[in-house]
Structures are given as structure tokens and as C-alpha cells.
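Quick review question:
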């Protein structure tokens, strides 16, 4: 399940909903990761643009990997502005065995950082500035040359 929210994520509500929905589905592990915007480099927060069709395709491919191991993935991400000390990203893995969930959450979060079509901007003095030094180029992306 992939959910996108405007602004910061309501972490407690999301985790409570996920747990309430899946705790009785016979998964033995529910491992989650919550990303929090850090106060660094003079930023007030971060702002995010998302290309949803590619994000959904990327997530669906990961969901198939999870399914092959008897696991299930959950993810929530922010669109727009998220201020310091608020959450912009939550990921979770449900699986019958903890080892599968522990390994998958690590691989999923790392691949998310490298491959998800989400563009990050710093918020400085109320304005968005592209965070080039903290961005990763997407595979097969770039400018076409004529």
C-alpha cells in the first residue's frame, strides 16, 4: 500500500492504522522506518515533488519482491513542504519471519533513496531551493541530445 500526503505525515495515525489493519493477518513481524527532516545547513524544512506514475510502478515492483517472500510493504510519503522535526517518509514491512522483514526494510529504504522519482528542495527563507548536493540522479534519466 502506497499513500501520498500533502505536507508532513501524521506518523502516529498512520502507524496506528497500519497496525490496526494488519496485526491479525498472521504476520510475525511489523518493522517500520520513519524518516524525520533534520535541522541542518540553515534549512527550515524540505519540500518534495513526486512523479506518481513512476513511483507507483517502482513500488509495485517492490511489492512483487515482497510477495515472493510472503511479505507485504507499506509506504507513505509527503508532497510539498515538511518542516524540520516532522516526518516526510514512512516505510514498513510485514512478514511471517523477522529476518525477512529486517533485511527487506533495509534494502527497500536504500533503493528508495537511490531510485524513487522524488525531487527534494531545501526551504530557506521561505523559498524552495533544489537540494542538488543531496540528490541522486535516477537511472536512465537525463536530457535527450538532438
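Suggested answer, residue by residue:
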Amino acid at each position: 500500500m502506497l499513500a501520498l500526503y500533502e505536507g508532513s505525515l501524521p506518523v502516529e495515525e498512520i502507524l496506528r492504522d497500519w497496525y490496526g489493519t494488519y496485526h491479525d493477518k498472521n504476520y510475525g513481524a511489523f518493522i517500520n522506518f520513519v524518516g524525520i527532516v533534520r535541522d541542518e545547513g540553515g534549512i527550515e524544512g524540505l519540500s518534495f515533488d513526486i512523479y506518481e506514475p513512476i513511483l507507483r510502478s517502482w513500488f509495485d515492483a517492490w511489492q512483487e519482491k515482497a510477495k515472493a517472500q510472503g511479505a507485504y510493504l507499506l509506504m507513505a510519503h509527503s508532497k510539498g513542504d515538511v518542516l524540520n522535526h516532522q516526518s516526510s517518509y514512512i516505510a514498513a514491512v510485514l512478514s511471517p519471519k523477522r529476518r525477512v522483514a529486517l533485511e527487506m526494510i533495509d534494502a527497500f529504504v536504500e533503493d528508495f533513496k537511490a531510485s524513487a522519482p522524488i525531487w527534494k528542495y531545501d526551504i530557506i527563507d521561505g523559498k524552495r531551493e533544489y537540494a542538488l548536493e543531496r540528490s541522486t540522479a535516477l537511472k536512465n534519466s537525463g536530457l535527450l541530445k538532438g
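Why it works: Helices lie at 11-22, 52-68, 98-115. Residues 27 and 96 are 4 Å apart (CA to CA).
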